[in-house]
Amino acid sequence: MKKSYLLFGLSIGVLLSPTESHAQWQADVRLTTDPAISNTSNNNAWCVAASGNDVHAVWSDLRDGNNEIYYKRSTDGGVSWETDTRLTNNSSYSYIPSISVSGSVVHVVWLDLRDGNWEIYYNHSTDAGISWGADTRLTNHFADSYTPSISASGSVLHVVWYDNRDNNYEIYYKRSTDGGVSWGADTRLTNNSTDSYISSISVSGSVVHVVWADSRDGNFEIYYKRSTDGGVSWGADTPLTNNPAYSYYSSVSLSGSVVHVVWLDNRDGDWETYYKRSTDGGVSWEADTRLTNNPAASSFPSVSVSGSVVHVVWQDNRDGNTEIYYKRSTDGGISWGADLGLTSNSAASLYPSVSVSGSVVHVLWQDERDGNWEIYYKRDPTGSVTGVENIDLEIPQEFSLSQNYPNPFNPSTNFSFTIPQSSIVNLTVYDLLGREIALLVNEEKTPGTYTVPWNASGMASGVYVYRIIAGEFVQSRRMILAR
Fold first, then answer.
1. 400 burial type by CB count under 10 A (0-12 exposed, 13-18 middle, 19+ buried)
2. pLDDT tens digits, residue range 63-91?
């Protein structure tokens, strides 16, 4: 019999409080107001996702007498929020949601007990959260499936979870290539006699990255696996940690070929948040970096990255009370700023998620300051420096994408584009196989002429393609990285 904490969280005494503030972080916003319990996920699968000015939040809520999945959105970058939307409606528990967004299509997976055992369910909205389709059951067998995580790349969706159909817990994977309309078969990613738990997934183009906790080595370590063909085939398991203590609750995010992983680790005698990165798409990995250093528990980290800016949130009880903390790196994980306390109240703040869109950083968590658990949100409108600069405020006559300069380049270059009207702008770099290398711009821009820098350190020499989508305007150009 597996212990229940593997489903609903480690009992490791997690509590915290801030030591410094960040001038750009705005006030906490309470998103739910009801006398029942509202919960974010505790499995490091994100409960908040942003695309342009649209911010999407999911959670589970007991207001209906049993846990249901709820959704809420903001269309102005988190400044104001619309009413709650109930996504599930059945007499059993729906729990631990995960959300991903691709343009205006929002995807949600969760854990559901309506079939008499825990199964993974899915739903999506094709109009940025205005309306929702029917629930789709993704798993169907006698055993329990737990804690799903979802990541989307265009119309291709990737979901991971852990499952005990094989008499021990293993990591499973499933994908859809048509935006969630139909789904392929379950794929078992791990195969050993011990347990594999709590997976997190992130995708860039056709490269899919999965991390999880695994006890095959006699204690829990963080493992990694990737697919370079969109989930069709998978490489070998790679251990990312190697110490006699527990490593658990990993979260993965990426920007092009740079993969960032955070997890909680008690090698130092107490729970700390650790970080590790790969600059070659998961082929090789650098040394572990300890992000927190205090005698209290720092746990349940969540990571999100935009370009070279890496954002990490976690819960921490260094001040005797559980609070949400934040830390960032502006150089792709090489160096890190100071810990920043995002919350400060006498009650507990738990299970944060972080997402980035343009320059705005979004954080969601659950909070007990109101006498019961509610969902809270906080934003930093300038927390993720994009490097996108409007160099000419005169309104252009037409859309255009200039040739990058210099070209050929090593390792840095600049892109320039013009837009004559306010548009959602997407500027992406691809390799010649069509794999996404870097997402440089993905937000609404006002009319003007913009320049965007890109540093291709860690990338192989060769020809790359960059493409802009701005409203109905689409244009691509080639460039050469010559080392």
1. middle
2. 988 999 999 999 999 999 999 999 999 98
Q: How many CB atoms lie within 10 A of CB 348?
A: 20
Q: Which of 3-17, 296-310, 351-365, 389-403 has the lowest mean pLDDT?
A: 3-17
Domain borders along the chain are 13-380, 389-481
DSSP 248: E
Q: Which element (helix H / strand E) includes 289?
A: strand 289-290
> What confidence tier does 2 reach under pLDDT thresholds 50, 70, 90?
very low
The gap between the terminal CA atoms of the chain, to the nearest Å, is: 56
Question: CA–CA separation, 316 vs 293, rounded Å?
Answer: 11
Residue-level length of the chain: 483
Residue 437: the pLDDT is 80
Question: Residue 438: which of 419, 415, 420 has the closest Cα?
Answer: 415
Q: Is 412 exposed, middle or buried (0-12, 13-18, 19+ CB in 10 A)?
A: exposed
pTM for the full model?
0.81
Is 172 exposed, middle or buried (CB count within 10 Å of its CB: 0-12, 13-18, 19+)? buried
User: What is the second-level CATH architecture of the domain 389-481?
Assistant: Sandwich (2.60)
Q: Taking Cα atoms as reference points, which of 328, 19, 354, 68 lies closest to residue 365?
A: 354
**Strand 119-125 vs strand 105-112: parallel, antiparallel, or unpaired?**
antiparallel
> Is residue 478 over pLDDT 50?
yes
**403 band by pLDDT with thresholds 50, 70 and 90:** very high
Q: ∠321-266-21 over CA atoms, to 5°? A: 40
Cα 421–chain centre separation: 31
Cβ–Cβ under 8 Å, residues 52 and 355: no
CA–chain centroid gap for 476, Å, is 28
Alpha-carbon distance of 322 to 391, in angstroms, equals 44
User: CA torsion angle for 380, 471, 308, 394 (degrees, to 10)?
Assistant: -80
| Digit-coded pLDDT (tens) for 239-286 | 999 999 999 999 999 987 889 999 999 998 899 999 999 999 999 999
Choose the CATH number for 13-380 among 1.10.10.10, 2.120.10.10, 2.40.50.100, 2.40.50.140: 2.120.10.10
pLDDT digits (tens, 9 = 90+) for 38-50: 999 877 789 999 9
Burial 84-100 (b: 16+ CB within 10 A, else e): bbebbeeeebbbbbbbb
Residues 289 and 161: their CA atoms lie apart, in Å, by: 27
Rounded to whole angstroms, the Cα distance separating 422 from 272 reads 44
Confidence at 21, pLDDT banded by 50, 70, 90: very low
Q: Which residues contact 233 (CB under 8 A, 6 or more apart)?
A: 227
